[in-house]
Amino acid sequence: MLGRLGIVVGMLAVGVMPAGAAAAPRDVASTHTYLVAGYAALHAVVSKWSAVEADIHKLDLRFHAECPDVGAGGPQSEEEQKLSYEVAGALWATGYHTDAGVVRTFVSRVRSLRWTNPATNRSSRRFIMGLQEMSALSVPDLCGDVRAWSADGFKAVSTNTERFDRHVEAIEVKEIPPGLLLKYVQPTDRGLLKRVERLYTRFSELEFTTGQASWDTLLETLALNQ
Predict the structure, then answer these.
(1) 74 in Cβ contact with 154 (< 8 Å)
(2) What is the pTM of this model?
(3) 88 pLDDT more than 70
(4) Fewer CB within 10 Å, N- or C-terminus of the chain?
């Protein structure tokens, strides 16, 4: 559930294969630039991960001050799961806001890249759009939304929760599939690719541990079940 916390830029975290002999110069150049931009983005995110953690902690402190245990007494139900998902969305919004500058830089470096394969271009555009949409995502009014659920006798969540969840669910942050790019990776980029792999592994570890712990903490603060 928390796979979109922070910026998601898993570029080509797979094994190296020989570049295709017929690769067009544009494909090779675009892939190289994409790989360089991906490394820079991952390095920036991993290096400032403490800032993501700090902003998430501030979010928890805010809920502690504004509405501690606001969901107390609520049953574990399908409606409560919608609020639980909204909490995850609040975490994603917070992480992306922290890394908004990284996203802008990455997008500025890759938005003009083009490949001879139309599928690769479409995938690149979707990825960029997803990153921008997540960066623009606002933290929802969780205190108000949980209060509304409580005021309704814990029967149905508010339309605000329904709308937010649908919006977040519709955002797709999915990098260009490695299969579309790997054949264009040149031998001279093998060292860079290995560094990307190491950074992506570290990023995934940080994302998972921070995401799960933060989700549990916020749910406890609001007295919601998973």
Answers:
(1) yes
(2) 0.89
(3) yes
(4) C
